[in-house]
Amino acid sequence: MAAEFTSTKLNADNHLLLDQPLLRLPQELARRNLKSVQRIVEREKEYVLPALKDAAKASMSNEQTPNQTLATLDAMISRMQGLKRKMENLHQEEKKIHNQSRKRIQHLEQLYEIPSLTDVKYDHWSRVRLDRLVVDHMLRSGYTESAQQLAQEKDIENLVDLNVFVQCQRIAESLRHGETKDALQWCNENKAALKKSQYNLEFELRLQQYIEMVRTGDRTKFVDAMAHAKKYLTPYIETQSAEIHRAAGLLAFPPDTKAEPYKFMYDSVRWVYLSRLFIRTHHELLSLPSRPLIHIALSAGLSALKTPACHSAYTSPSSNPHSTTTSVCPICSTELNELARNLPYANHTKSSVEPDSVVLPNGRVYGLHRLLDMSKKVGSLQAGTVKDPTTGQIFDESDLKKVYIM
Amino acid sequence: MMDLVQKEHERLSKRLKSSQSIKSVQEAIDLLQSTRDKVASDPSQASISLAKLQTPIKSTFDAINDNLKETHGGLNKYSKSLDKLFKDRPLPNSEHDALSAQEHLINRAIAMHLLREGQFSVASAFLSEIAEKKAAERQHEIDSDAIDEAAALLDIGGVPSSKVRDQFHNMYHILHELKENNNLLPAIEWSRNEENKMALEARGSNLEFELCRLQFVWLFHGGHEQRGPTPGGRHAALEYARREFQVFLPRYLREIQQLMGAMAFTPNLQDSPYKNIFNNQSAWADVSHSFTREFCALLGLSPDSPLYIAATAGAIALPTLLKLQTIMKAKRTEWTTEHELPVEIPLPPSYLFHSIFVCPVSKEQTTDENPPMMMPCGHVIAEESLKRLCKGTRFKCPYCPNESHPRDAIKVFL
User: Fold this and answer.
1) Can you tell me which residues the record assigns to a coiled coil (chain B) (predicted)?
2) Sheet holding B410-411: strands in order across?
3) Are residues B275 and B225 in the same domain?
4) Which residues of chain B lie closer than 8 angstroms to A309, CB-CB?
């Protein structure tokens, strides 16, 4: 009884593991949103205040005609209107983010009101969690349409991050097609945060641009390439000196060279690499786990459920689809069987079998009660005989033997 | 902890001053505009008006920055409350992701889960997006190969995926009729399909009878009207019994006698010993559950979505596994590389499906390579333990005085 209680008790604080990104992501987005506001306000402040001062000074000393003053004021008005418009857009976004956070907090709070894992409310909550994990997986794989549909049908749009992943996929896709523009713009928007990144996304992108210039084989482009390298690559000289020297060497090798590492630098797989690097950097910046949450949940869950019987050559008497006496184990079910094959099975320190276990002459063990019950249900069976629910063999009741499991 | 997060978020919401800031900008714009108008109508006022502008415009920006600072403070406090909530609970790192190489199997599990849930349009969108991606990876237009390949994700054993999809469609339709319209007929029809009937019988399933019995009860309560027992309902039920129950004799003789016996108690069924058969609140849910179980079993599938059970078990197991990961990391090993998890995960009893046998001598679980062996006395130990104990000759059972020869031990299947 005590063991059962501990295995069904729900400790919400401990349970909220897979749900970190649910709150972390909007918090990161809110931070970014605030940064954007700060940036545009600062920019206008730095323009408007000095301009106003200059205008006042000029007007005082009669260096400015009234028309010039009017023009200065008009320019200021239009910039302030621009500022207001941008702030309004960001404010709309901010409201959306915080509304989403609120909904997510409410969703997590529900878990705190559920005392037990066997509660039907937990079942419901856990199904919503699975829907979230599935949508997360779809978005990360680029199956946007499916993700959108599922989120809509399950009414969990506030609990998933469609836009973030769609934008991420779009940029990753553009890199796979050999374009750096969107990715560089993204780097520019996240300049401050990128400084703390463990990856060198921007350097790699600039290096790729350089490689593309050299690839043309055009002498005039070489000059551009060197200027590009000087401007964008040399600032990284302390950390990336090997790559920078290699880049310089590239000038001496044509794109069809067999010499490494230059052959590799020209290789188009670098775009695939850049695309992946972008995704990793993007997820790092937004506190998103690098692999789909469903992988984390499943690799733990499959192992926790798996037993040596799940991939045994012999049909397990205690769980198989051949009779109503047993229920099919989820790991034995087609959906997961292959997936679980190479994972470790659960650890058990105690046997657990039916207390009234008997063994049939074929070595199969069943609970006596279950066996007799089943044999009764199968009509057409002679009195005093039992049917092996798994193999269908028929045995005399007198051939059953009690088995003792310690 | 969650309370703190909730409180900090509420506090933060109060510290969002964007609309106020936008209002300040508008006031500054108005001020600039009125100054402009003044200068336009009276240029001589230009320098004095401009001088007057300096302070209010500067304080507009100061006010906005104060607002931003306040929001910033709120955000920091909120993010600290999140740190506290998730403290010491980092997600497992990605160094070893055994599942990432099995993408297609995960997609298959998801697609089948969607079908089980009746999400047919999402499932087909999903399969076609998988096909598109495959085609794109091969650098050419989407072709029929890729579509077939994606669809083939759903093949079960020898059953092609289109058929699997039809099967689930059918299951969903039957369940829908059952739950939404109290219509048992599609389910009864399914259970009487020749092939299904045989398979159900071999399983020792009561499904057909359970369905028909509920149909009887439903008719008794007035069918679509459900006005409670009326002479008309009683008549319809008896009519149904005469027509349909013949085949259930003699297997369900006792149950049928109960149904008939109950008729004698109308209209006072409530006080009769049969009230549970006739006023069972969960009868429809129970019968839906039996139907799903039988339907899935005939496909060799588990009745509940395995993806759901596994993901839930995973969430329950994670706290224990993470604690372990920290320890294992110190020892430079990873749990996913072992045959067996190094620690027991307490799962609720409903997550146990197979019998578990742990050899009482070696304390190891038995496997195909090291199966459980039963000695003539009925005690069971693992084969390796047996070999170690007997050394080829007669030996004493470690749990009773019985002596036996190792060749008398038989392999058992739990």
Assistant:
1) none
2) B380-382, B372-374, B410-411
3) yes
4) 354-355, 414
